[in-house]
Design a protein that fits this description.
The protein has one helix and no strands. It is rod-shaped. It is 93% helix and 0% strand. By secondary structure, the chain is an all-alpha fold. It starts with 5 loop residues before the first helix and ends with a helix.
Length: 92
């Protein structure tokens, strides 16, 4: 059985203290990284919802644009028809 001197015990205690500090730092780092991951997941979910809403609005705007173009074409056709009638009246 070997006896350890006070210097060896101090070295062991210092080594254990350093190990404890490293473990505490690792635990703190893991906790911080988990919080950051959770925040990133929440942010991603919000961004996906916003993207879906934007896509939905864009689709509605595209449909409305097509309806307005069709209406404009109908108005143009009716105006051309009316102008043709006016031209016929002037020619008569």
């Amino acid at each position: 059985m070997a006896f350890t001197g006070p210097e060896e015990k101090t070295a062991e205690i210092d080594t254990l203290s350093q190990l404890e500090q490293r473990i505490q730092k690792a635990v703190a780092l893991v906790s911080r990284l988990r919080e950051e991951r959770d925040a990133a997941i929440t942010e991603l979910a919000a961004a996906r919802v916003a993207g879906e809403e934007s896509h939905s609005r864009a689709a509605r705007f595209a449909e409305e644009l097509e309806a307005l173009r069709a209406e404009r074409q109908q108005v143009r056709n009716r105006l051309e028809l009316l102008l043709g009638h006016i031209d016929q009246l002037g020619a008569s």
